[in-house]
Amino acid sequence: METAIRFLIDSSISGYANAVQQDPARLARVAVGVSLSRAQRMALYVANLSRRADYGADPRAASALHDCFSVLGDAVDQIRGSVKQMRRLTGSGEEVRFQLSNVQTWMSAALTNEDTCVDGFEDVADGAVKSDVCDRALKVKEVTSNALALVNGFVAKVMVP
Questions:
Q1: Taking CA atoms, which of 51, 78, 104, 136 is between 20 and 30 Å from 115?
Q2: 101 Cβ partners below 8 Å, 6+ apart?
């Protein structure tokens, strides 16, 4: 597990190492924050592509981009909720476990929405837009997955009696 956590830190949040140090709560908070930033940038990127695609020749690509933007917006909202919940962890025992359960649920839902963005391009002909959006979405999914893994690791530490 230690090796997996080190890889997750190295691959997506290494720039925050000094702020995080050995605190699993801070590590999870920073990872979720990085996930939010990446998802927001991806949603903005897809929104810009979507506006241009409306005037293009491929209605399937335009539709996939619109759907992707919609589900990425949902993912951003879910990750934003996770960030807020992580910042406000209060109480002890059951209360904290409930709050962390919300974060796990929302981060998992965000990951599903990011998957849905990629899945929406299945019927789109191969091309630069499809390749670019799917590649970028896969990187965002990776960061979200890493954040969820770190949240799960923190939850496992909190659950220890």
A1: 51
A2: 155
